[in-house]
Amino acid sequence: MNKKALVLFSGGQDSTTCLAWALDRYEHVETIGFNYGQRHVVELECRGLILDRFRSDFPDWGGRLGQDHMLDLSVLGAISDTALTSERAIAFNQNGLPNTFVPGRNLLFFNFAAAVAYRRGLEVLVGGMCETDYSGYPDCRDNTLKALQVSMSLGMDSPMVVETPLMWLDKRATWSLAETLGGSELVELIRLDTHTCYQGNHTTQHSWGYGCGTCPACELRAKGYEQYLSTKDNPA
Fold first, then answer.
1. Is residue 26 part of a domain?
2. Could you tell me how far CA 121 lies from the centroid of its own chain?
3. N or C: which end of the chain has fewer CB within 10 A?
4. Is 215 annotated as a binding residue?
5. Which residues are involved in binding ATP (predicted)?
């Protein structure tokens, strides 16, 4: 049985839920984040606060939470021409993908995470990628990540297990999973302390958290939260 995991932790709703999921399952969990010149760099400021909250407010998990790793991948932002790495309006490209897609981002993230995991003796990589509620990013697809798991394991001659617990969940179900894992306390932590907004707005508060309220990430988060509350008020 795998006992040690490394969570790709951005400071957003999905990766925070995945961190709770990993801490609920593995004896030792470490985290890794990436500064790639993202427009919403405020998410990196949220990471430390969230990790501190996990250690102080969830003692069973805090005892399992190990070292945090932060890597500088600013070269990715330098070679990208996207709405996540420059001040551009969010729109769709001619190929049908939104211009918030950063080519190669998740592929690079997992490869660098695998290198750290190899050195640290961690067997599982956990990411918050999702096919159900996503913006059409091809590097979030289940097949992409299964293929990546095989190539990393072969290339390092060491088994690397890629876990994506949110892959088939919509945002409503992601909020519900957080409640199942950590109760209302975790839901409130995610609502107020995580960052999702593509615009980097962490000053305007809504019922579902902070954000501009109009970018695709905010719209998904808001819709999911409303559905989550509706489900709680009207259980089947």
1. yes
2. 22
3. C
4. yes
5. 9-19
Q: Flag whether 38 is marked binding.
A: no
For residue 90, the enclosing domain spans 4-190
d(CA 234, CA 236): 6
140 is in an annotated binding site: no
Parallel/antiparallel/unpaired status of strands 209-210 and 205-206: antiparallel
Instruction: Give yes or no for a contact between 21 and 64, defined as CB atoms under 8 angstroms apart.
Output: no
Per residue in 96-155, pLDDT tens? 666 566 777 888 899 999 999 999 999 999 999 998 766 678 888 999 999 999 999 999
The answer to the question of whether 18 is labelled as a binding residue is yes
130 is in an annotated binding site: no
135 annotated as a binding-site residue: no
User: Is residue 165 a part of any domain in this protein?
Assistant: yes
CATH number assigned to the domain comprising residue 115: 3.40.50.620
The two structure tokens encoding residue 182: 């950590």
**What is the domain count for the chain?**
1
In a domain, 149, yes or no: yes
Residue 231 lies in a domain: no
Would the annotation count 10 as a binding residue?
yes
Residue 17 labelled as part of a binding site = yes
